[in-house]
Fold these 4 entries.
Entry 1:
Amino acid sequence: MQNKVYSEVLAVLGALGEKFTNSIPAKLIDLFNSQKNAYIPIIDVSKPLDKQGLDNNTITIIALLKLNYWCDDIDEKIKLLQILEKNERELNDKIRESDSIKNVLTLIRKNK
């Protein structure tokens, strides 16, 4: 399944073009190529990434590539880090809420 992610990352990079791909270390591109599978995703450049049906891990890798290689200045990096931290907090909140609901349901079942 993870190999699908690398195929998606490479497809996104292909859609972004050489300017973006050339700013990533060749060893990293080689890693993506060595780990990809035969899956060839179609990227519609008229749609945002979150509407492409990509794996969440693909989006995460692209976000990290942006943070490490494509941010133009420190302000852009700070904004992206704030977004990533906000997303992390929201995800953790959802996990805690889900766990709380599971705990309540478990207690209800035990008390029957």
Entry 2:
Amino acid sequence: MTGREDWLELTRESALDPEQRICDPHHHFWNHPNSRYLAEEFLQDIGGGHRIVKTVSVECLQFYDASAATQMQAVGETVTVDRIAREAAQEDGSDIAAGIVGFADLMLGDAVRPVLEAHLVASPRFRGIRHATAWHADEKIHNAHTNPVENQLGLETFRAGLKQVAEMELSFDAWLYQTQLPELTDLAEAIPDLNIVLNHMAGPLGIGPYRERREQEYQAWKEHMTDLARCENVSVKLGGRTMALSGFGWSKRSEPPGSEELAAATAPYFEACIELFGPDRCMFESNFPVDKAGCSYTVLWNAYKRVANIYSQAERDQLFHDTAVRFYRLDNC
């Protein structure tokens, strides 16, 4: 468990529009000494009334195979998540982790190909990789778990690895901060046949030096996102706003926010992305259990549905289901 259940129970809601199909394209499984989040915990969270028909599991440095060569150890995460998914399907028909996004060290360059091939052998659910590059010079803003370096997206070796991803018709989940968006735009233009999905809208920052600059930073973020949107090979995951780095401080309150408050605070980011990229390149995500620090799963998706009320049913279908299913090629799963 994540240790937040009693606090989350203080704000309870019934699921809005429970017939809306949802493909949750971003969640994690982990088993830390003081925090367990496996099938049991995830299924409990998604069982709050929303119609979750498929999900995508994204790497988080878990279940590595210590007996394998260093570059191959991450394949152990794909093996484990595949087993979790198959067991859940056998038990109650759940289609969690219909797609799996694993890790491969892109700094291997061309030599990353055997690692990608090993992931594909490990699971027919494997769809792509995430090599997080979220980096910031300010020590108050934590760098990603992959220990990135400055301007990693621009390194020749890193891009050589991504070209292998593109050649194998796999996708790239990009996790970086808003300050790095120009680097992603340059990358997307340099490798136009690489299917990229930006995680968490580039994590618009509200901590450290950005704490008192929300409006200015929102405008800077939107300008960079406008440039990125011109790259047709880039899609966006809409979410991540209840992470601590957003600076809203919901996790420190005596009780969690409700969906109306969440929707009001986060709508400008979501609406900007949908306007710039279109519903066919945007997908709502849970980012659970990371975003569980700020609200429950049911409340989170209620907030998304409140935001999406201004769009047509066809557009809502894309935002909640169709875009994710198409991007991750889940139609036949």
Entry 3:
Amino acid sequence: MFTIVDPTAIKDWDQQIKDLPGASFFHCSAWAKVLKKAYGYTPLYFVNTDRKLDTVIPLMEVSSLLTGKRAVSIPFTDYCELLAPHPEVSRVMFDVIGSEGKKRGWKYVELRSDAGFLNGERASASYYRHTLDLTPSVEKLVSGFRDSTRRNIRKAERSGVEVRFEKSLEALRSFYRLNCLTRREHGLPPQPWAFFAKVHKEIISEGAGVIALGLWDGKVVAANLYMYSNGKVIYKYGASDKTYQHLRANNLLMWEAIKHFAGGKCTQLCFGRTEPVNEGLRQFKSGWGTKEEIINYYRYYLAREVYMPVEQGALMAARSLFTRMPIPVSRVLGLLLYRHVG
């Protein structure tokens, strides 16, 4: 027997799911709260009710006049495993989801993970994921770094870059200033400040996230945002001022974060999702001795009962425009558009 729940309304949700194989930060109630409050998405987590909770397929319903109505597991999330004891359970659950989606008028359901029941179905989109095992000693970790990574760390140290780990709203504002610069460099509008304000309230201030700041001559030149749960960390957002790229502050930030989370605090650091076209970012993440894997997304159109590719033509065409756009304008566009593209 399956039912639909909202994890933000279940007091002990995180405790219930923490031991399920594949559970990550993205399954936690705090992340659901952020997406629900910042963008107005409706959490619809399909779970079993026959016994102790052992099956969870988390979805968010996105309802937009611009982009239609659909379910995504989960918007603005790098990956989200289907938590089920056996592929057959996932298949049965997916049939239930499809029936519910047709009643609710969804165009499609998007899964952001592989699922055994798909039987080799072609992915709608694919990305890289890099993870680092934090259980070895610091010396062992360093030995796995690429030579260029070690050189860049030393260069940042010699240049006088200082790293601080902070949880204040002021630190988050420093990150956000750099995030706006970085998003423009990538040809994307920045996420709305209201989203990061919710991240601070629901995640950082609750002890499940931290901001790493890289300072040079008293100025914040780079910043990373890490989130963690159940001994696993994800490097969710990184930003920097390209003017100071020669300092290699990003390398020192990551190195200090590895030391910060290692030593028994956490067992794994995930470097997040990387687009196949972003070879520079892929090489940066590979340089830390990480394990590289493929993340597959599957977009199933309910009316046609077929999996189809994720179309990104409009986004790619707009990127050159965003790189030239003044930041105040792109911030307004981010505020208006993000909830429609989840």
Entry 4:
Amino acid sequence: MKQFKVIVAPEAEEQMQRYLAYILFVFRREDAYEAVKNDYLNTLKRLRTEAGIIGESRFKQLRDRELKQIFFKSHDYVILFRVKGDVAEVAKIFHTSEDYQNKIR
């Protein structure tokens, strides 16, 4: 099975850190913070092997920008990424309740 190098863009990492901070400081739920953080890290691990088999998005806005999406297994977040050769580049991270397909630039 092909392995991809996963690179997280600084903006995407900042997005994830804001979500985690919100969970920790607004909800005051360390257990939820840890669960979402672990789900995020596991999703990045999944990208190492699944990036090449994930098909095009059903959203034209994402396809036009060559973005694919992978969802967290246990939480309502989505990672938008591009595949360039052997690299899966994480571009954005959103909560699925957001209109993320129209928020990308």
